[in-house]
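[scheduler] slot 2 assigned
[scheduler] job type: sequence-to-structure, two independent chains
[scheduler] chain ordering preserved from manifest
[runner] begin chain α
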Amino acid sequence: MTNIDLPDPELGRATIVYEGLDGEQVSIDVDNEHIVYFDDHWQVKTGEDDDGNDVIRRIPRDRVRYVERSVEEFQDRVDAAVDEAKERLDLGS
């Protein structure tokens, strides 16, 4: 098995803006690794409980106004890792 040394990426930040339960606009800023879209909801890590478990806020997509993410550096690192893997596995470009 060939080991591929993947870089430890700076994943960037994300901002999600959505309508809160009281109708007010809510904005949350998190690391990109703490936000994901799944099953028609945006899921955002908002902290940890007393036992060290992640606390996740699920926000239905119809309440979300926008999500803004900075990912350029992450994409550059992924591209570099893919190129390196192709070279090591002799897959060509």
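[runner] end chain α
[runner] begin chain β
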Amino acid sequence: MVIQEDIIILKILERLVKLNKFDCKAIRSLDDLTIEDQQQNFDVIITDILFEGIAPLEFVVQVQEVILHKNLIVVTNMGQDKIKKEIFALSGIAGFYAVPLDLDEIEAIIQTY
């Protein structure tokens, strides 16, 4: 699953996941989740952390509580070291990447699933 408000990054990440032979659900916010999405166990979620009305760390915690998944990768325009450290302190975080993206690194992580 890819959760990303930026439509260009959303489409790039969705394509990357599909090229690695995974099914991919791409949405722009948690409001777009269906009941079926919440019941499915995703191998990986690739998400931004910048969404209006919610702090970055709170958003990550909310994703971890709402969507069953094995690993979480953060791809964001927010590259602050403090936020990165706080997010990595949570369990289940497989990576944190600031824009501009290194797609090769993200693809390498995806291929391990």
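[runner] end chain β
[qc] chain β: The chain has one domain: 2-111.
[scheduler] slot 2 released
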